[in-house]
Amino acid sequence: xxxxxxxxxxxxxxxxxxxxxxxxxxxxxxxxxxxxxxxxxxxxxxxxxxxxxxxxxxxxxxxxxxxxxxxxxxxxxxxxxxxxxxxxxxxxxxxxxxxxxxxxxxxxxxxxxxxxxxxxxxxxxxxxxxxxxxxxxxxxxxxxxxxxx
Length: 149
Known about the structure:
There is one protein chain. It is built from three helices and eight strands. It is globular and about 45 Å long. The strands form two sheets. Strands 1, 2, 3, 6, 7 and 8 form a six-stranded mixed beta sheet that branches. It has one domain (2-147): 3-Layer(bba) Sandwich (D-tyrosyl-trna(Tyr) Deacylase, Chain: A), CATH 3.50.80.10. β4 and β5 form a beta hairpin. Helices cover 23% and strands 38% of the residues. α1 packs parallel to α3. By secondary structure, the chain is of the alpha/beta class.
C-alpha cells in the first residue's frame, strides 16, 4: 500500500461538479492499494501519517504532526500510484488490487483514519474526481507499507 501525502492549506475533491470532500489545513492522502495488501498495511500507514512531523513549529522546523495541529485529512483512492513504467510508454497497473478488494481495504483505511480523531473527508471510490490541492511548502512525501523496517 502506498500513500502520497501532500501538506496543504486547503483541498477539495469533486465528482461531476459536486464537492464531495473539503478540508482546511492538513494533509491530502492519496492511497494506492496493491494486490496482496491487507489491513496490516493500513495499520502501519495510518498512525505513521497522523504522527509524521511535517508541519512547522514556531521556528519553522518540521516538529509538528497532523495530530499536533489538529489538522484535517482528505483521503482519496488512487490506483495510479501502483503504475509500473519500466517498459514501454504506457503504464501498467497489474499490481493494483482488484476494485472490490481495494474498495473494502480503502474503507478500512478511512475508518482507521477517523479513529485518530482527525477530521477525515474522502472522494468517491472508482469515480472520476477533480482534486484541488493547495500544497503548502510544497511538501510531498511518499510512504510505502512494504518499506517498513
